[in-house]
Structures are given as C-alpha cells and as structure tokens.
From TrEMBL:
Gene3D superfamilies on file: 3.30.530.20, NAD(P)-binding Rossmann-like Domain
Annotated ranges, domain DUF1731: 431-464
Pfam families: DUF1731, Epimerase
Domain NAD-dependent epimerase/dehydratase: 160-373
Lineage, highest ranks first: Bacteria, Bacillati, Actinomycetota, Actinomycetes, Micrococcales
Protein name: DUF1731 domain-containing protein
Superkingdom in the source lineage: Bacteria
Length: 466
C-alpha cells in the first residue's frame, strides 16, 4: 500500500505572495525544518533537475548517493486555477513525490496551501522514517516559518498567549493562528531555538516579567494547555504531579489576569473529556454531571476537575472550558501509539472492546478553538464547558478494526484486560487509558451550527494515514 500524507492550511495572504515562496524549490529550506538545502539546475520549470539535502545525520549520505530530483509540474496560480509545484525524487524501485497546491480564496486576500507527500517502491518504509515522515510531522512549525515570510499581521488580529504551547496541540494551534494573521506568544519553561514563534520563559508558578505578554488585555486571548502528558502510571505521586502541572500554571495565569486594568478578551481553558472518567453507556454532553465518589478516577476526574476550577477566577470577558477528547493528529503520541501497535499485530480489541472511544481530527479541533476565540463569525459559542469531540464516537473494537483496514493489517487477537495491566507496567502507562471510555458529543457545537470537516472515523483515518 503506497505511503501518503496530505496536510492543508489557510493563509491570510494572497496566492501570488505565497507562491513566490512555495513555488520556488530553491527557497524550500527557508521554511521547511526537515530540509537543509535545495537547489535547481537552471530555471524553475517543468523538466528541470536539482537536488535537496534533508536535515539531520543522513544529510551527507543523501548528498553523495541520491540521484537528481526532477520538477514534474510548475504551474503558477491563475484567476481560475490553482498553482501547483510537483517534484519527484527517484528511489530504488519507486519514487518520493512532493506536491504543493496554492489556491486563491474567493475574497482575493486569502489562499489555501496543501502539501501531499507520497512514496512508492520497496524503500518506502525507510524513506518514510528518515525523510518523508519528518517532512509531514514538521508541518506546524513549517507553517509558522512560511507565515513569517508571507503573512502581514492583521490590524484587528488577536494576540494569543498559549501556555503549554510546546506540545503537539499547542504548536499546531500556534501555527494555524500565525498563518491566519494573528499574533502568537508561547509561554514555555525553556525557550527552544528551533521553535518559530515568539517564546517567553516562565516557571509556571511564580509571578514575573512574563506577565508583560498580557500588557494589552483588550486584544489578548489566553489559551491554557499547560500540563504534563497523562501517559504515566497512576501512582499517587504521578497523579499529584499531573494535577500540579495543570493547577499551578493556571493559578499563576489567573493571578496575573487579576492585576490587569481590564479583562483579557478571551480565555480558552484546556481540559479533557476524561473528566467523566469511565462513563460506560452514558451519552455525555456538556450538561452531564461529573462523577463523584469511587466513579471519579483520581487520574482523570481528580486531575481535570481542579484544573478547570482553578480557572474560574480568570479576569476574562469570555471564558470557554474546552473538554477535548483524543485528538487524531499526524505524529501525535496518541495516533503514533495506535499506529505502532496495529502494525505490530496488536490491533485487536482491548479488553471487552465495548468501551467508547471519543475522538476529534486535529483540523476540527483547531476550528473549535478558533470558534472559542471568537474568530469564526458564523459560529458564536457561549461561555462555559465545551466538548471538542467528533459527533461519531466509536467502540474500541470498531476503532481497532478501522486501524487495521487503513494500515492493511489482518485480523488480530484481542488483548485481555490482564495483559493490558501487565503491559502497562512494562510501558509505564495507565491501563485505564485503554480500558475505560466515554461517549462524548457536543450539544453546544450542534446548537451553534458548527460543522465538522471530519465527522467519520474511517474518513479521518484515511486523511491522516493514507
């Protein structure tokens, strides 16, 4: 089965300006972190040859051994037709093809970019790991670099402060907002020179100079995603650490907002649908009561409830509490683990297989956050809890069947609960992550007229893992 990955993004610039960078392979390394250098022999035209060197330890080997790449198509955007640049790198028994399409928006002031990477031939698995995979997974940071080259900040744009912006979701959100002309600041414990956004260091606990990022509160939004990954053994110490990594940064942000002359414009408070722990057959919406007593698992409800509660004192004109389900995103820990297990022949149902799996495609998650930030005029959301989840949850047995189909794997034996418990010790993870579930959908999004681009799991997996 051919390997293929497709990514898309809207930019707040005209098609010609974006094409001036994307349509010139010689500028590839300026915006793509996975590329060290690229050149074309002569003019940029169909049929021309050239070469590129991937960033990383295999750059020198590639320079010495790879045959020339060829420009298959070079078509600038026109009034009624998109621009298209396609290059092809020969591989043993196949090829890697990269295609960019730039399509003008109907308003003449925006455009859309798509990137498709495809591999054929027996060398595909190796090339996917060394070159094509990094090209695809680096898309969010590449978008931010592109935005810095072609996007003029919107005069009416928000300045969005993202706490926890170094994670996969934070970087995807930062890139999406930057491409659309909004300002982005990442609050981070340690600045990373490879991150193409403005970064301000803080410790997530103390007051300090970082509070200057809130200096213009009337046009500032806060998106609070701060917190350690939940993929850890559910020991008392780990649960305490998970809770504190969320509560303490939220407390610091709320404290800083209270000293502002006016409230910040928007506050999107991160949370999780795991706040309902194991909801069984309950059809969960925003108004479903939270569990109490033994039903409130410490590593789920016990972490998310105080995280949300800490944000209640935020000085914000609007505050949305975003209860996010599992986000399916290329290169994310969740999707990578599911894909790896399925490829290893462990793609059977987990436990009974009847536990519900609520999920959302990353593109839809980004659209939900934009709506929560007030950036989608035709979708007006109320303050309060908001579930970010596809309208089509599936049971675990159906999830694993869809993954096997998408990845071309045969039926696999089930993984009994006892095996999950033993395996979680070896992998240092929480067995409840695989054995519990929730059927979560949003009545708030439905009432607001929000439309999901990827409401169906099979279609979403086709888009992400083709």
């Amino acid at each position: 089965m051919p390997w293929q990955r497709t990514r898309r993004q809207t930019f707040a610039t005209d098609a010609g300006r974006l094409w001036s960078v994307v349509g010139d392979p010689r500028r590839w390394a300026q915006w793509c972190g996975a590329i060290e250098e690229a050149h074309v022999d002569g003019d940029v035209r169909a049929g021309a040859t050239g070469a590129y060197a991937p960033a990383g330890p295999f750059s020198a080997l590639h320079r010495r051994t790879a045959p020339p790449l060829r420009l298959v198509e070079v078509t600038p955007p026109a009034t009624a037709a998109p621009g298209r640049l396609t290059l092809e790198q020969p591989l043993p028994g196949g090829a890697m093809r990269v295609e960019w399409v730039v399509e003008a928006g109907s308003d003449g002031m925006s455009c859309a970019l798509s990137q498709r990477i495809s591999l054929t031939g027996p060398a595909s698995p190796l090339v996917a790991r060394l070159v094509a995979g990094p090209l695809s997974d680096g898309w969010p940071d590449d978008l931010a670099r592109l935005a810095s080259l072609v996007v003029t900040p919107r005069p009416d744009g928000l300045e969005v402060v993202v706490a926890g912006g170094s994670g996969s979701l934070g970087r995807a959100l930062a890139a999406d907002l930057a491409a659309r002309g909004h300002g982005v600041v990442l609050l981070t414990r340690r600045a990373d020179a490879g991150v193409p956004h403005r970064q301000v260091e803080w410790d997530g606990v103390q007051d300090g100079a970082w509070e200057q990022v809130l200096s213009d509160p009337a046009r500032t939004a806060v998106v609070n995603l701060a917190g350690r990954l939940v993929d850890a053994r559910p020991t008392a110490a780990n649960v305490d650490a998970l809770r504190e990594s969320r509560v303490l940064p939220t407390r610091a942000l709320v404290r800083a907002s209270g000293r502002l002359p006016v409230p910040v414009a928007r506050w999107v408070q991160g949370s999780t649908t795991a706040i309902w722990s194991d909801a069984g057959e309950t059809r969960v919406t925003e108004t479903t009561p939270l569990p109490t007593g033994p039903a409130a698992l410490p590593q789920m409800t016990g972490v998310a409830r105080p995280w949300e509660a800490e944000s209640e004192g935020a000085a914000a004109a609007h505050r949305v509490v975003l209860r996010t389900s599992i986000v399916l995103q290329p290169g994310s820990p969740a999707l990578r683990r599911l894909e790896t297990l399925t490829r290893l022949g462990l793609g059977g149902r987990v436990g009974s297989g009847r536990q519900w799996f609520s999920w959302v495609h990353v593109d839809d998650w980004l659209a939900v956050v934009r709506a929560a930030l007030g950036l989608t005029p035709d979708v007006v959301l109320p303050d309060g809890p908001l579930i970010a989840s596809s309208p089509s949850p599936v049971r675990n047995v159906d999830l694993m069947r869809s993954l096997r189909r998408r990845l071309g794997r045969p039926p696999a034996p089930p993984t009994p609960e006892r095996a999950v418990a033993v395996g979680s010790v070896v992998l240092r993870t929480d067995p409840a992550l695989g054995l519990t579930g929730r059927h979560c959908t949003s009545s708030v999004l439905a009432a607001a007229g929000f439309r999901f681009e990827h409401p169906d799991l099979d279609e979403a997996l086709d888009d992400l893992l083709h």
